[in-house]
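I had to read the description of the data format several times before I understood it. The format is easy to grasp once an entry is in front of the reader. For illustration, here is how one protein appears when written out as sequence plus structure tokens:
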Amino acid sequence: MSCGMGLGAQTFKKRLRSLCVGLLSLLCLHGAGAKELRIVTIESAPFGFIGKDGKPTGMMYEIGNLIATEAGFSYTNQITPYARSAHVVARGDADFVLRYRSAELSSSAIPVAGVLSLPTIVVGKPSLKVRSLADLRGKWVGTPRGGRFDDAFDAETEIQKYQVSDYSQMLKMLMNDRIDAALGSSIGLFYNAHQLGIKKEQLGKPLVLSTQTFELHFSQKTADEETIAALKGAVARLKSRNDIRKVVDKYLNSFDWEMVSR
């Protein structure tokens, strides 16, 4: 009888030990998944803006949320001015941002994955024939404040560069002949042209300068290997399912945004 009771006690202890190990593993998994990521999205339509309903929205806003969800994280996402978005990630006040590379991000953030590549273009009215950057010498060209889009354009000292707060302002200036041409991403320019009621026929043939990539930049101050691996895998899966392209097309289907650089 005593031997039987001893065997039962041993079996009970083994089962209890297994149960404790299982619960501990479950708690660890829950703890990893419970990490909340702090995302910032650049304030520039159509990438990030406040909609008519007063709620944040935008192409990169949606894609950032999609990546966090696919990776299994909860998140917050705040629309932030372009220049400030790099500062908060560098300081560790935010975990990641989707945007082009910059000197500040290169030294303070981890480039986890390329998310979306976009042509950088210069476009004017049909009367302006632009076949190369040389045709823009002596002309006034609007550029988004704080952005770096093309090294060759930046190096052209004879092009008069006029910084503006956003694409909408730049296009209004172009239509009112206050500048000769506008520079930026194809999506940024064409989306805002459509929103302003500017027709394709009112714009000349764009000069495609180069291609820039929106990358997921994760703060070095808050990064860990598991989170980086989860986000990298999430971006790869979303791209393989064409889910990122679906978000892009939802915001821009009236212009051809996917052009090949010369």
